[in-house]
Design brief:
It is a single chain. This protein is of the alpha/beta class and 358 residues long. It has a single domain, classed as Metal-dependent hydrolases (TIM Barrel, Alpha-Beta Barrel). The chain is built from 13 helices and 8 strands. The chain has an 8-stranded parallel β-sheet. The longest helix has 20 residues, at 99-118.
């Protein structure tokens, strides 16, 4: 089983201090920390969870607790072969206006996760966090860390100053292609300089906002296809993490229809949008919509061949964690979604029979 969205956290952001130079170390020690948890310098979220983000049965105190609880409640409990770490508070660095500080924090986090997490357990694999508003330096960070064998993807938050197919971001895609790493876009980063979150303005309640955050995923799908990202870099993948699933085929239907009518705008495209999506875009299961009639969901999933394109994710240890034994998918799809599909996308994962835990 491969879990494609496991959040590794810290007891305090001060764990990054040894990885920052004196100038930015002073920022972290003395600077304002307005985040909801008060541990990381980021723009304040507009929508605060009324119960907190972490599961109530998981309450780490020390840094060691974070790993030990993950091992108990996820890795060992469900016999996970690979857990892809996706960070947590660091996903919000792209909301910071100071690009120099944002890049420094990204590099510090990447060094910390290699030292503190990847060395603990062979099952753990890392994601390269980048400061996406500065694509040239983000690309340099990808190349700096991208040779590490246990860094298996690049990760950005879904909140952004532009949709991710825009040529502004092409240095990032170029570096991803060079390193043969997929790019994961994870739900989050809706604050600070990333102000274009909802198409008609901000909602009021957390649950309302959470249900609507798939809008950013729609924009990134349309943008990467329309700007020809997958024509320019045919070895790349876009993984939408925690962005929902059921909206995906309807957006592709609309894109196909409009492309047929207006293809003269984008002569660099050689295929239908849905064909690019089939080969280059993957979605993770959490949160997988769960209607009263499961067959309704399965019918939707079949329209984009989810048996071969959907990746399992638990979102551990967040409040909406999904138990891998209970996700509502057909029984004959489970082997693909829980394992085989991810191995196709993540080229650095070990062979299926080489299971070696620390």
């Amino acid at each position: 089983m491969i879990d494609c969205d496991v959040h590794n956290d810290w007891s305090t952001a001060e764990v990054l201090l040894p990885y920052l130079d004196d100038y930015f170390r002073d920022f972290l020690i003395r600077g304002e920390k307005p985040g909801p948890r008060g541990t990381f310098p980021r723009a304040q979220r507009a929508w605060l969870h009324p119960e907190g983000f972490r599961r109530q049965d998981i309450n780490p105190v020390t840094q060691d607790d974070h790993y030990n609880l993950m091992k108990e409640h996820l890795l060992d409990k469900y016999d996970i072969d690979v857990a892809i770490l996706t960070g947590d508070e660091t996903l919000d660095i792209s909301t910071i206006a100071n690009r120099y500080y944002g890049n420094a924090l990204a590099s510090a986090y990447n060094n910390w996760v290699i030292d503190e997490w990847l060395s603990r357990d062979r099952r753990l694999k890392g994601s390269i966090v980048i400061y996406s508003p500065d694509p040239e330096n983000a690309a340099a960070e990808i190349r700096r860390v991208g040779e590490h064998p246990d860094m298996v993807q690049i990760i950005m938050s879904s909140g952004s100053i532009r949709p991710y197919g825009d040529p502004f971001y092409h240095p990032i895609w170029e570096a991803a292609s060079q390193m043969n790493l997929p790019i994961a876009v994870h739900l989050g980063g809706q604050a600070g300089i990333n102000t274009q979150t909802f198409s008609s303005g901000p909602p009021t309640f957390y649950w309302e906002a959470h249900a609507l955050l798939c809008q950013a995923g729609m924009s990134h799908v349309a943008s990467t296809i329309a700007h020809g990202v997958f024509e320019k870099w045919p070895n790349t993948y876009l993984i939408l993490t925690e962005c929902g699933v059921s909206w995906f085929p309807t957006v592709l239907w609309r894109l196909d229809n409009d492309y047929r009518a207006l293809r003269k705008e984008t002569p660099w495209l050689k295929r239908l949008p849905s064909e690019y999506a089939r080969d280059h875009i993957r979605l993770t299961t959490q949160p997988l919509e769960n209607p009263d009639n499961k067959q309704h969901l399965w019918n939707v999933l079949e329209t984009f061949d989810a048996k071969h394109t959907l990746l399992f994710s638990s979102d551990y240890p967040h409040w909406d964690f999904d138990d891998p034994t209970k996700i509502p998918i057909p029984a004959d799809w489970r082997e693909n979604i829980l394992d085989a599909n991810a191995r196709q996308v993540y080229s650095r994962l070990p062979a299926r029979d080489s299971k070696s835990h620390s």
